[in-house]
Amino acid sequence: MAFQDPREGRGGAPLVSAATLPAGPLRDSFEFLRGFLRNPAQVGSVVPSSRRLERRLVRSAGIAQARTVVELGPGTGGTTAAFLRAMQPGARLLAIELDPAFHRHLRESVHDPRLVLELGSAERIAEILAARRLPAPDAIVSGIPFSTMPPAVSDRIAAAIAGVLRPGGRFVAYQVRAHVAGFATPYLGPARKQWEWINVPPVRVFTWTKATAPAARA
Fold first, then answer.
1. What confidence score (pLDDT) does residue 161 get?
2. Are 140 and 171 in contact (CB under 8 A)?
3. What would the pLDDT profile of 28-66 be if each residue is shown by its tens digit?
4. Which of 174, 155, 165, 160 has the alpha carbon at shortest distance from 52?
5. Whether residue 143 has pLDDT greater than 50
6. Domains in the chain, please, with CATH?
7. Contact between 125 and 98 (Cβ < 8 Å)
8. Residue 110 CB-density burial (10 A; 0-12 exposed, 13-18 middle, 19+ buried)
9. Which phi and psi (to 5°) does residue 163 adopt?
10. What is the model's pTM?
């Protein structure tokens, strides 16, 4: 079944455009829907995350205590704004977005000197951190849908996350399905699993804590 462009009414007449929508949740929801219709394999939902989910992610990832945070798949920026509100003044947030339209929307709508935006794949996280001269992240939060990506890509992203995360740091993934656990657990060990029901759709929240290096022998 073909999808009609949400900007068109009957006969193809313009109905609504992003430019005519007011700033805020309505425009973000519209941009999110457009992103899902462009590429459903890269966008895990048709609507942005709920405020309840945003607060859970902030707590699970320890955003308030983190100095360097990485967000994979920020979408329209609802979670990005929540992280920035919780972060310390001197902290940095690297947001890596694969969709050019979402990246442009973030660049135009979120203005904070602590935010570093990058257009690209999560597979390049180590390269991007090095190019931006950012230290190993204390927290990495991912909303990208591991269940719809090719398994080889999912595995490379999980390996890259485990490779750059600071010992003792946290990787938090919020997902409709549980596929992410099959890719991240071999690198980071068992995860703490929670459900966030106040979201459309309800999502699983997985939290991994990277093991610290063993103490050196005397």
1. 98
2. yes
3. 444 444 444 445 544 444 456 789 999 999 999 999 999
4. 174
5. yes
6. 51-209 (3.40.50.150)
7. no
8. middle
9. -70, -35
10. 0.79
